[in-house]
Amino acid sequence: MARPPLDDRGVPYEPVALAELALRADSQADRDSARRLQGQLKRARHEITPRWTSRRILATMPIAAFIALVCIPTFLWLFGGSRGSVLLAVSALAVLAHKWFERRLKVERLHHGVGATIVAHGFCARCAYSLKGLEAMPDGTIVCPECGAAWIAARITRPHWTGMHPPLAEAPPHLPRLLFIPPPLVNDARGVLVRRMDSWLLSVRPDRRQAMGRERVQRLRRALRKRGRWLRWPLAAFPAVTSIWLLAQFTHLDGVDEQWRVLIAAGIVIPALLLACSSLVALLGEFGIPLSHFARTAEAEGVCAACAGELAPADAAGYRVCITCGATWRAPTEPEQRTHPPA
Ligand SMILES: [Zn+2]
Ligand SMILES: [Zn+2]
After folding, report:
1. What is the tens place of the pLDDT at every residue in 229-262?
2. How far is the CA of 8 from the centre of ligand 2 (A)?
3. Which residues does 141 contact at the CB level (< 8 Å), separation at least 6?
4. Which ligand is closest to the CA of 143, given by its number?
5. How far is the CA of 154 from the centre of ligand 1 (A)?
């Protein structure tokens, strides 16, 4: 059971139900904003905890077929029947355990992210009351007059009353999705759900990339992809080597009947191609690059890890807000400068 999120005075609260988000609004403009946020959060929830729709089953089928028809037979062929089965069972268990932990982490992220996202848009996360025009208390928090929940005023980075509506859960751009690196929804430093950029910056708008300049883009890309490359190379090497080994089997086709030869050739070439593709995906993918690395690297470059927009200077607590999308990132705390006594 996940712990309930806390408001900014440490009081546990249950985030307002998404269905009730627009019920408290007392003006048409507030209602429209609340409805828009409701739609965005519903899409985010659907993306983070997807249901087994017919479309998803259909999309999963080719992957399942690839594993069943190519990966498993290749594995058994390489390692032999009994040893192969044990190795296969262990890998399957490892994958399942990884998936389970990943899902738990995502649900936790969503659970804590919903409230932070609602507050970032200027609504109370507990009762959906609009926080527009409320004064902050001396401790920097705004207290909701409706339910008493307290929110740090600096959390409101996408206020609904300004008409600024940076999209939150728009679908990941096509190009990174095609390359199997769809940028995921993550929590920014204040917990708000934002879509982080991909490590090749393909998800960053072209005009923004242009504004950043070629040199800065390349520097950021290099710094992002530096992390985890020692994990990605061996990961990519395994299917690549298997693919080459499969192609080498062509040398054994000499004595084979003409009619069988075409069939066997297809049986070699298609899996070899698929394995080569999965090797490329592993190499160009983002395995081994944690979110903290994205946040830290982008912040060092002065840009937002979600949209690559420029970051405002750090506030007293070290938080930097993106001028374009309102995502917040935390400047890493500098180790205190040691003062050396003069020699
Ligand atoms: Zn409230
Ligand atoms: Zn941004």
Report:
1. 999 999 999 989 989 988 888 777 777 777 777 7
2. 24
3. 8, 9, 150, 151, 152, 153
4. 1
5. 17
